Amino acid sequence: MSDEISLSEPRLRLRIFFGDDVMLGPGKADLLEHIRATGSIAAAGRAMKMSYKRAWSLVEEMNRSYRQPLVDSSRGGTKGGGASLTEAGEAVLAHYRRIGEITAREAADEIAALQAMLIDMSDGK
């Protein structure tokens, strides 16, 4: 068995807890990004293999948790519905992603040290 680690690159998945009731993590951030990309809560949920009900619930939770809503949505109908990030939503997403970048950069040596301590699982066992 070689000493070389054959694991994929480590990923850092950051969750920020604001007290007991409010959390921002990778799932909510990804949902915001998918809403921005698709213009739809339903399409964002589908892209994440998440039910519409779950996606809508997360959007409502985020909108209640911040001083300003993060997602603006309109119901369907003859004009069609849609959703978009508000200015606050864009700011929250940008801050969260930036915190992740800073954390990954600052913790790179420690993450590498942890990775070096792992056993080599390249033979699939």
TrEMBL record:
PANTHER family associated with the record: DNA-BINDING TRANSCRIPTIONAL DUAL REGULATOR MODE, TRANSCRIPTIONAL REGULATOR MODE
Lineage: superkingdom: Bacteria
Domain HTH lysR-type: 31-90
Segments crossing the lipid bilayer: none
Family annotation (InterPro entries): LysR_HTH_N (IPR000847), Molybdate_resp_trans_reg (IPR051815), WH-like_DNA-bd_sf (IPR036388), WH_DNA-bd_sf (IPR036390)
Pfam families named among the record's database cross-references: HTH_1
SUPFAM superfamilies registered for this protein in UniProt: Winged helix' DNA-binding domain
GO molecular function: DNA-binding transcription factor activity
Protein name: LysR family transcriptional regulator
